[in-house]
Amino acid sequence: MASDPRDDEDAFRWEGDDSPTRPPRPAPADAALPSGWRAVGKGSASQAAAPAADQKPVPAAEEHRSASSEDDAEPEPPTSLGNVALVTLGLLGGIYLLYTVGWILGGARTALVISAFLAPWAVVPAQWAAVAAPALWFGVSMLLTRASATWVRFMWLVVGVFLLVPWPLVSGV
Predict the structure, then answer these.
(1) Residue 36 — left, alpha, or beta (φ > 0 → left; ψ -120 to 50 → alpha)?
(2) Are 55 and 45 in contact (CB under 8 A)?
């Protein structure tokens, strides 16, 4: 009794295999590339050595021209951060969250002292600005350094860690 080859393939598939979050399956080694495509990466030498029957060799000048026009048409997707960078971003985000809590507690403690000298309409906005400053610094640093190098983003976040220390809480005023 001969088995259907599709039944054998079904054993290696699961619903959700074609999810956009999963990397695409590698093509079989004997599959030819469509015209206009070129193989890159590991194992591409065998693909490049034997072009498909319907594929004509492309001169190097035309290949360079088509590659540059493709680069102009589609921007490259952003590179993802590594594990160390993600953990460091989480730690810095936690520090900024603690700073926000520190400014809430420190500002509440100093509000009684300051309100004797200043009008409440001057004290309350300053306290809200101090409470919002760490979250704003973190968000704006992440937003404005999207296209920058990773070290630039971390530099701005570390500068904010030193600038936004909740001094009323730290000094115990």
Answers:
(1) left
(2) no
Distance, CA of 102 to CA of 108 (rounded, Å): 10
- Distances 74 to 33, 67, 71, 77, 141 between C-alpha atoms, Å: 21, 11, 6, 9, 26
Parse the chain into domains and list their residue ranges: 83-171
- Is the Cβ–Cβ distance between 79 and 145 less than 8 Å? no
User: How far is residue 127's CA from residue 111's CA, in Å, rounded to a whole number?
Assistant: 8
3-state helix, strand, coil in the chain (%, to 5): 60, 0, 40
Share of the chain above pLDDT 90, in %: 29
Structure-block tokens of residue 34 = 């469509």
* 133 pLDDT higher than 90: yes
In whole angstroms, give the CA distance from residue 26 to residue 28. Answer: 6
Residue 157 has pLDDT above 90, yes or no: yes
- On average, the pLDDT of the chain sits at 76
Is residue 167 helix, strand or coil?
Answer: helix
Three-state DSSP state, 118: coil
Given the structure tokens 């952003």, which residue do they identify? 78
Give pLDDT tens digits for 63-93: 555 555 555 556 666 667 788 989 999 999 9
